[in-house]
Amino acid sequence: MDIFSPLQKFADIVTFQWFGITEQSYLSGVVNFWIYDVLKISLLLIVINYFMAITRYYFPMEKVRDLLTKKNWHGTQYLLAAILGVITPFCSCSSIPLFMGFLSAGIPLGVTFAFLISSPLVNESSLFLFPSVFGIKITLLYNILGIAIAVIGGFLIQKLKLEKYVQPDILAFAGKKQLLKKYEGQYIPWKERFKLWTNEMWDITKNIYPYVLLGVTLGALIHGLVPESLISSALNGSSLWSVPIAVILGVPLYANSVSVIPIIEALISKGVPIGTALAFMTATVTLSIPEALMLKKILKWQLMAVFFGITTIGIILIGYLFNSY
Predict the structure, then answer these.
(1) For residue 5, is it within any domain?
(2) Which of 50, 149, 172, 195 is deepest in the core (most CB within 10 A)?
(3) Is residue 17 one of the residues assigned to a domain?
(4) DSSP 7-57
(5) Is 141 a residue whose pLDDT tops 80?
(6) At residue 299, what are phi and psi to the nearest 5 degrees?
(7) Which pLDDT does position 302 carry in this prediction?
(8) Nearest Cα to Cα of residue 292 among 277, 306, 313, 281
(9) pLDDT tens digit sequence for 190-229
(10) pLDDT exceeds 50 at position 1
(11) pLDDT category, 180, cuts 50, 70, 90?
(12) Per-residue burial over 126-150, b = 16 or more CB atoms within 10 Å of its CB, e = otherwise
């Protein structure tokens, strides 16, 4: 069961009953998508940011950070982060609140990016819907490659030592220190703790929320107004450039993998090679302009360029591999 289905039902009611917009129209696609995603991401922002505020308070994040950076892990921490991304049913924009929480909690940068890459790339759709559409072999290969891209991408970002390109105000949380100093080892009342957590949650949420609205609005416009036939005609063919073109076309779009699978099925039925179609889908759910707008509040352009570059190269390789499969 989709935990966000009540939000979708509410979006349907507002779009089709309150606004009276005709179903299957371009406008209904824009409005319905916008209402649903604003509600979903707003809820995720509040819940996840509040959860991470509590986590920062209670958990010894310095020890966790030290543990995850020990050499004897031999890269396992990146795999664990990628697996965590697999079991969180988020699209790229919905993953960002948890990504922010990891960063502010002091989790190593590369580990957080392994999560950010895998969360939209390998999810409930690729695990449970792919077998009926593409078969078991392609499903297994896609998921293995998706996790591998997340692990390698996170590892490379960590090795490049790009921590200086994280916006410093995202990591500045002095509330706990001030509270501990105020009470000097005495019992801290629950009221004070709740106040601290709430303030930290709102500080993060209000800083990123304008970018959330801008990103979702742009994504809704593209989602509702770009016709499937235009995409199909651009991707149909076996040219060496078809895979990079598919990635370029997928980046401006914004959707989760569940909603884009019917489009992928239609593309394949019209003769688009499977690798090209998968590259388009992967770029759509993993990279997007709305995601970039949200990340701009958290990351400097140098780190964003590295993240998008590594992920784009990985997606193109997936496309070529499946086209030659």
Answers:
(1) no
(2) 149
(3) no
(4) HHHHHHIIIIIIS-PPTTSHHHHHHHHHHHHHHHHHHHHHHHHHHHHHHHH
(5) yes
(6) -120, 150
(7) 92
(8) 306
(9) 888 888 888 878 877 776 677 677 767 876 776 677 666 6
(10) no
(11) low
(12) beeebeeebeeebbebbbebbbbbb
In a domain, 315, yes or no: yes
Higher pLDDT, 304 or 176: 304
Q: Are 280 and 232 spatial neighbours (Cβ–Cβ below 8 Å)?
A: no
Which of 153, 141, 144 lies closest to 115, judged by CA?
153
pTM for the predicted model, two decimal places: 0.70
**Please, what's the b/e burial string for 19-52 (b: 16 or more CB within 10 A of its CB; e: otherwise)?**
eebeeeeeebbbbbbbbbbbbbbbebbbebbbeb
Q: What's the per-residue H, E or C state across 100-160?
A: HHHHHCCCCHHHHHHHHHHHHHCCHHHHHHHHHHHCHHHHHHHHHHHHHHHHHHHHHHHHC
CA distance 82 to 68: 14
Domain count, the chain: 1
Is residue 1 a part of any domain in this protein? Answer: no
Neighbours of 69 (CB within 10 A): 14
State the residue range of the domain holding 134.
24-323
